[in-house]
Amino acid sequence: MAPSRISPTPDDIVFPTSLTPSQLSTFHRNGYLILPSALNPSTVSALLTETHSLLSSFTLSTHPLTTFSTGETSSHIGDTYFLTSGDKIRFFFEEAAFSSPSPDVPPQLTKPKEKAINKIGHYLHALSPPFRAATLTPLHATIARQLGFRDPRVLQSMVICKQPEIGGRVPPHQDSTFLYTNPPSAVGFWIALEDATRGNGCLSFKPGSHRRTEVRERFVRKRDGEGTEFVEVEGERWPRGLERDEVVDGEGDAEEAYELAEVKAGTLVLIHGNLLHKSEKNLSQKSRFIYTFHVIEGEEEYDERNWLQPPEVGFTRLFQDQC
């Protein structure tokens, strides 16, 4: 059984304003950092209220019923609804929310729409006032500065619902595979809106794998414009200035233990773009709503092959004083 790390629940909650030297060292060593009580309860409540409003208000009549696949049971998503979602708020269904197709009957939703959505994305930080306010914060800007960002840009903001009974498993992956810059620079800001536990599919991490595992492939648009695919990385595979571990030939793919990260609502988890992480299927009766956005270095190359393309105004600056 994988070891577990549970975020503490102190009696006197102190909301952080920056990372301590010890926390910064932990992030650089492990590739992730758990920061409890990063969001106050009122902000968490506001984001949940906004999420439920979005889920109840979208219409099925005009929806293409696009599902989100992690690639384990079917091909990764790549339709127009998905590829043009970078500057919109769109809704992607769980694969398990539909009945099996038959020759005469197409797949049918087996859950209410509010209980069938895998995620909402990918421009919440710009189009939803509550999510914008919770994203472009002094804390997040300070953290980005402490991590060495010069011009951090926000992209791919989304709520991941991890619905009861059907919330899908996410296999081991690196975020820089999906948001590739040359050299890699992505960092995930992952915020629990509900308690995340072993039972409802919390995250787990391979500590230190960001220093041993290069970004070997990237998720891109096919050159003919039809769909997406994974291709080998031709540019840099390691972030600029990363202190890497020496890996003996054959050891880089060795089996290593993942560490569970059970956290309370309001916890912020920082995730290095090269770090291997995953989550299991939610088989419980409780959802696991989280909000996540990613930051890349605006001074690094982000090319036209990436599946997510910037809106006309460009990716959002996290340092609002530079706007």
Describe the structure in your own words.
The protein has 323 residues and is an alpha+beta fold. Helix content is 16%, strand content 23%. The strands form three sheets. Strands 2, 3, 4, 5, 6, 8, 13, 15 and 16 form a nine-stranded mixed β-sheet that branches. It starts with a strand and ends in a 6-residue tail after the last strand. 40% of the residues are buried. The model has no long low-confidence stretch (mean pLDDT 91).
Architecture blueprint of SSEs:
Layout lengths: L3 E3 L14 H10 L1 E4 L5 H17 L9 E2 L11 H4 L5 E6 L22 E6 L1 H4 L1 H7 L2 H9 L5 E9 L9 E4 L13 E6 L10 E3 L11 E5 L6 E5 L26 E4 L5 E5 L4 E3 L10 E8 L18 E2 L6
Parallel strand pairs: 1-12, 3-4
Antiparallel strand pairs: 2-13, 4-5, 5-6, 6-15, 6-16, 7-14, 8-13, 8-15, 9-12, 9-14, 10-11
What class do helices, strands and sheet pairing give?
A: alpha+beta
Overall average pLDDT? 91
Distance between the termini: 48 Å
Multimeric state of these chains?
single chain
Largest sheet, in brief, is: 9 strands, mixed
Low-confidence stretches: none
Beta strand count: 16
